[in-house]
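In response to reviewer comment 3 from the previous cycle, which asked for concrete evidence that the modeling workflow produces usable outputs, we include below a single protein chain processed end to end. The sequence was submitted unchanged, and the resulting structure tokens are shown without manual editing.
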Amino acid sequence: MNTVILLSASVLVVGISFYKDKKKTKKSLMMAKGMFLSTAGSIFGILMFIGLILAIIPPNVIKDLLGNSSLFLSGVYGAIIGAITIIPAFIAFPLASSLFESGANLVGIAAFITTLTMVGIATLPIEIKHFGKKFAFVRNILSFILALLIALGMVIIL
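The workflow returned the following structure tokens.
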């Protein structure tokens, strides 16, 4: 439902923009099309890579890593898994719930969700291309460390 609302709002705003200035709107849409096409190949490759990883690693292995280890190790495993996967939040949160119900530690789940949103190993080539190698690596390393600290903080809070 949210997608329909966002798409409707986008069409409405583009319509208003087109009404106000057809030339600028057409130019903006052509720029957006070019940007989309330049990154579409990279995004497709990333999705193929993630699909391959998820096909190779069975779900029960992920549950074992996040639930049968020590709290620290399950946090590290969760952080690593979250850092290399790309899953939309509307899928990740129910997945986290099912992992918890299957016996995964909160630390591992928190690390998984946090790195999933903060760290992007699979998207690193795109980030390097747009922001530079140093920035991309520093941001990802700091985000990984912070994600582990947040996950360990969840033990204290909960």
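The mean pLDDT is 84. We consider this sufficient to address the reviewer's concern, and the full set will be provided in the supplementary archive.
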